[in-house]
Every structure is written in C-alpha cells, then in structure tokens.
Amino acid sequence: MRHRYQGGCLRLMPRKSGSPCWEFLWRENDKNGNRIRRTAVIGTIDQFSTLDLAQAAVNGLRMCVNEDRNRQPEQRIRVADLVDHYIETELSQDADWHSHATRIVYRQFLRKWIRPHWANVEFRDVRTVSVERWLRQLRRTDGAPLANSTKAKIRNLMSVLFNHAIRYEWLE
C-alpha cells in the first residue's frame, strides 16, 4: 500500500483557561493497518499570532510525520523546512549528538545567517556556486567583512544540513 504525503491540518483550539492553542492533526496507520488520528499541540496564539507563523513552526513536525513516505522528485521542500527539521531532531534537548555549546552555535548561525537568506529556496535548487557567492558577500552588522573562519563554519553547517537531508533520504 502506498503511503500518501501527510500535509496535516492546523487548527486553533480554545482552552478552558489561557490562550487558544494551535493544534496539528494528521493520520497514520497502526501495526494492524488501522488509521489513527494523531494530534500535537504546536503552541499558543501568543507564541504564533498568525496562521503563517504557526505553519512555519509545524514544518519540522510535518517532515518527521512524513519521513517514512516516499519522496517524489516534484515535491517541493524549502530550506526553511530542512532547517526546522534539523533543529527539531538534531539540536533538541533530547539529542545527544552534539555538545550543548555546538547546539547553541548552530541554532544561532541558522537563525542569523542561513535561514534569512535561504528560507524560501527549494533545497534541491541550492547550488555550490551560489553558496560560495553568498558567503563572499556576508558582512557583520557594522559593515565589515565576516571573518573567514566564521564563513567556514557557516559553509560547514550548510554541508551538515544537506547531509541531514541525505540521511533522511530527501536527496539522493
């Protein structure tokens, strides 16, 4: 039986006390093949004030839900989705793959450098030459060129992201 890509449903649910919460709903099969409805609370309306912000927050979870499904080449996955999934799986508090300091630095580099520039680019469209060009033009907030060692760390983190995509079979 072919598994379909789960886009899921995002809804805003009122609570008895406190702010309404965003919930993500999807379906999956149990061991007997029966369909089960799953729900995960994403956050409150205070945390994600618009549907677009909530959708962005759920991208990493959506990638986890669909990791056992076949990836079609025409399926568009943005770098932002890859970054969200990487943060959720590799940089979470439960993951012991990286040291605490590395997780902090990686999150900072992803937030400050990689995500703002590459978020809306489909990750299969990212080319080495464009990454090199982008790295050469990076500047600090005062306008001075970024240090070569910092550029190397950002480049290596981009490589780590794409290795993550290969590990989860989103790229060949």
- Please count the beta strands (DSSP E, at least 2 residues each): 3
Assembly state: single chain
Choose one word for the global shape: globular
Report Rg.
18 Å
User: Helices and strands: which structural class?
Assistant: alpha+beta
Secondary-structure element string: EEEHHHHH
Extract low-pLDDT stretches.
none
- Average predicted confidence as pLDDT: 85
Biggest sheet layout: 3 strands, antiparallel
Q: Strand order, main sheet: write it out.
A: 1-2-3
Q: Give the helix level as a range of percent.
A: 40-55%
Discrete helix count = 5
Strand content: 5-15%
Task: Give a description of the structure.
By secondary structure, this protein is an alpha+beta fold. It is built from 5 helices and 3 strands; from the N terminus they run βββααααα. It has helices at residues 51-65, 79-90, 100-118, 128-137, 148-167; strands spanning 9-13, 21-29, 35-44. Strands 1-2-3 form a 3-stranded antiparallel sheet, with helices on one face. Helix 1 (51-65) packs across helix 2 and helix 2 runs antiparallel to helix 3 (100-118). It is globular. The chain starts with 8 loop residues before the first strand and ends in a 5-residue tail after the last helix. The model has no long low-confidence stretch (mean pLDDT 85).
